[in-house]
């Protein structure tokens, strides 16, 4: 019975940790008044859409990490775990840096780093579990969209 609970506990941990970090970041830093004003005039996506997309991406990365963990890919000499930690950390930077502070140029650098670590996660996760790699592909699309939004902010 204890062995059957272990995968469930790890699933809950790997889902709730990034989701709770993302939710906390959105709650504290996700409502930038500058972005709201720009979004209405320039045609940027509303904050609600960015928040929901970030939560969805967080959920998918957490689930992908669990799939890889279940295959043994996050343990041992693989660099999947450091890449995953870097990816989650960089995902938390967008809201305070771009939406709250308005540092679009610096945000673009972080978006490119975020995209690079997500590509690294995709490559490592795909080797361990094809489904996890497919889920990370959706996260790559989300990061590309955030990079586009940030690039649009730089051009304004």
UniProtKB/TrEMBL annotation:
InterPro entries referenced in this protein's UniProt entry, alphabetically: TspO/MBR-related_sf (IPR038330), TspO_MBR (IPR004307)
GO cellular component: membrane
Signal sequence annotation: 1-22
Short name of one Pfam family: TspO_MBR
Membrane topology per record: Multi-pass membrane protein
Main location: membrane
Compartment annotation: Membrane
Protein keywords: Membrane, Signal, Transmembrane, Transmembrane helix
Keyword Cell cycle: no
Gene3D superfamilies, sorted: TspO/MBR protein
Domain of life (superkingdom): Eukaryota
Residues annotated as transmembrane: 49-69, 104-122, 129-151
Similarity annotation: Belongs to the TspO/BZRP family.
Protein name, per record: Uncharacterized protein
